[in-house]
Amino acid sequence: MKNKAIFYLLVTGIIFLSACANNSGVFRIGDNQYQVSTRATWEFGGRAGANRMALEEATKQCTSLNKALKVINSVEHYGHFEGGTVTLTFSCEEIKE
């Protein structure tokens, strides 16, 4: 019975924490232009955490295309209840050698 209670507590904690940080995923907004929106509560770094997540998603997208990330625009907000939010607009450019 004790192990079952611990299991339910862990599952509930994981579900609760997963709601504290999220992202929209990368989507195309134009010719070689993409956007990703992220949100992180203060426990996950607020604006800095949301910025990190957005850059990680953008880098992953460009790496999958074997191209380099070029940030076009980044809009950041912070509110006490919603935490930090970042909307990152970027393109993936040819790697120059």
How would you characterize this protein structure?
By secondary structure, the protein is of the alpha+beta class. It is 37% helix and 39% strand. Strands 1, 2, 3, 4 and 5 form a 5-stranded antiparallel β-sheet that branches. It is elongated, with a radius of gyration of 17 Å.
Strand and helix map with partners:
Blueprint: H1 2-18, E1 21-23, E2 27-30, E3 33-40, H2 46-64, E4 68-79, E5 83-93
Antiparallel strand pairs: 1-3, 2-3, 3-5, 4-5
Question: Which descriptors apply to this entry?
Answer:
5-stranded antiparallel β-sheet; alpha+beta; 5 strands; 97 residues
| Measured distance between first and last alpha carbons | 62 Å
Helix content: 25-40%
What's the total number of strands?
Answer: 5
Low-confidence stretches: 13-18
Dominant shape = elongated
